[in-house]
Structures are given as structure tokens and as C-alpha cells.
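Collaborator request, handled under Task 6.
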Amino acid sequence: MRSFFRSASGIVAVIFGLLGLAFLTAATLVSALPVPRTLTIVFGCVGGSTLAVSVVLGSLRLRTLRARERVLREGAPTQATIVEMRENRSVRVNTRSPWIIVYRYEVGGRTYEGRETLWDVPAGYEPGSRVSACFDRAAPERSALVGS
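C-alpha cells returned to the collaborator:
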């Protein structure tokens, strides 16, 4: 579950889910009051749409995590070289920003590039360093860093 929150989409999915539930709860409570029906409809629509966005973002995040886990479990090991590391300052959680790690690896004479977003950079990760990775044998462009 911790991996789910390593991405902005996971965090936003949970926030939208909570907002959606809050608005749907408010719509239910307001429907029992002697107020215009329009208010109930607005709260219900806002709650339903934010809940729908939450489900879509959460599903996409889970799909990404499952694909990464499959590559790590069934993929072929390789060595990769970190070519770029930068802090993503457009995202901040508790005064911290995630790091974007860009790496390159070679399969069958062809060079591929992968990217991962990490909140905590493992020791030894710096541009030019060699790291372990796995790639999907059927689709070598899909990869994941080992131990990240």
C-alpha cells in the first residue's frame, strides 16, 4: 500500500475519493432538509464525479504498480546507467519532493531508457552510476529498477 502513495496520482486518488464521499454524504443529509432539491443534485453530482475521478486515478496507479511488480518478478536482469536525477519540485508533500531517476540499459544491441519516481533515493544512486534493473523480455522498453 505504501507504494500506492509514492506517486501523485495515488495521493490525488485518495483525496478525491474522500472528497467524493464527503459530498455524497452531504447530498444525502441535505436531501432530508427542507431546502431546494437543486442543492442535493449539485452535491450529488460533485460527489459522484470526484469519486469517479478517484476510481480512475486509483485504477491507473494500481495498473502501473502491477506492471512494475510483474517486470521485477518475471523480467530479465540487466545493468543500467543512471543518466539523470532531478527533484520534481512541482510536487511537495510535507516539504519533500520526489526524485525522477532516468536510466539507460541495453538489450540486444539496442538502447532503452527508463524512468522512475522515488521519494527516497537509495545510496549510490547518482548520474553515471551502474544499477540493477529488470526488463520485460516480450517488451524490452518496459523496465524497473531493482531495489528502488
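The cover message to the collaborator said: "The beta strands are 76-87, 99-107, 110-118, 130-135, 143-145. The mean pLDDT is 91. Please let us know whether this matches your experimental observations."
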